[in-house]
Amino acid sequence: MTELKAIDLTRIPAAVRLIVSRLRQQGWETCLVGGCVRDLQLGINPTDWDLATAAMPWQVSQTFPQLEQLEQGLKHGTLGLVLDKQVYEVTTFRREGDYRDHRHPDQVLFTTDINSDLARRDFTMNAMAWWEEGGLRDPFGGQADLRQGLLRCVGQPERRFQEDALRMMRALRFMAVRGFSLQADTARALQEHRSELTLVAAERLRAELDRLLTGDYLLPVLLDWKDTLAVVLPEIRPLFGLKQPLPWHIYDAWVHSARAAAEIAPQLRLRLAALCHDLGKGETASFKDGNIHFYGHAEVSRRLGDELLLRLKYPNELRQTVTHLVARHDVEIPLKATAVRRRLQEFGQAGLRDLLELKRADIMAQNPELWPRRLAYLRQLDSLVQDELNRGSCFSLKDLAVNGRDLMALGLSGPAVGQGLQALLDRVVDGNLPNERQILLRAAQNLLR
Ligand code: ATP
Ligand code: MG
Prior knowledge:
Number of strands: 13
Shape: globular
Bound molecules: adenosine-5'-triphosphate, magnesium ion
């Protein structure tokens, strides 16, 4: 049971109060709605401010002629007002039209009735409105649910999830980020309608998934709602219940992956890498001498992870970062300076830190009996990396004491320049050549012959 707080005016930007009071002076009912009203009652600073009004967008526009205005959202009734370099969105009260495709209301219908606007919102705790003089408007028992941390659909859950399947993903996101739980009827409807998540556009799903994955309460969502997540991420399904060998493992492949994802630092690229690192275990599982093996699983994980990230339209750069980590998560790095430099060459400084963090999370999701030995190894590895960085070791082309122009001056041209530089770098990283200009130039001349 959380005690709710009286709304603290000092948390509300002056710009927000100004917009609301100006519109109200003109006679239009105007208030804060949605996430900010929820968060203010929890004593949390809202991430954004949703303002709702009975005024039509053109009336809002005319009320603030002196402000810069953003019109992208106009067809949904949203006008952006720029104040103190911040954008504040003001949306005309809307009521629900018909949904035909589980995604988009067929039409946007404006209304001057705030209760109709609140009725179209997803969960009761997100369906409260507030303004300074009027106080709270809470027609669906949002406060009571918020106190209990309960996500309850406004109205009939089946219907609400059918109208817009994304709401199911939002429910999981609020659980993972806020630690809320699902009210029983809402939970049942979600189980029943989860397959409709396939109808939601990748971009909308991804926006919620990203927040879900970086949430502080990720683990129970990954474990308890795995069948729902598998609608969006079918690649995880073969891991459910897949046994893994003792003494390393005490969890099945999915529980292990989920634990690794919840353990790793809450950055999206790392969470995705942990989530995907063992995807290939389903395809590669084989039995020998009564034991299960997953030979070559990292490469299959890379391929499956790549497919998953492509389908959800992740940016190429993120996809490459993640899949490289996945492909190499099992690479053995001996506790030797040369080996460390090679891995610095392969991953770069930030990339190698990511790899070590992935290895740490992977270990923490395995048998605790092995933690001391394996974490000690990681600490030693980490300090070797630090040594190399402190020493200013050369591990990338930009650190190399010669560059492309030098090799061209020696008569190399075309792709040979890049190949020559790479060959020199390999030798420096391996410790076969010092990173000294004259010596490297001489070595390059030898390469030419
Ligand atoms: P956050 O703190 O993450 O911003 P939020 O609840 O404000 O959480 P938003 O995505 O900003 O989430 O949405 C603002 C409000 O719009 C919600 O509080 C909710 O009232 C309503 N809303 C958003 N998406 C939907 C949806 N798919 N169906 C119904 N109502 C929605
Ligand atoms: Mg919001």
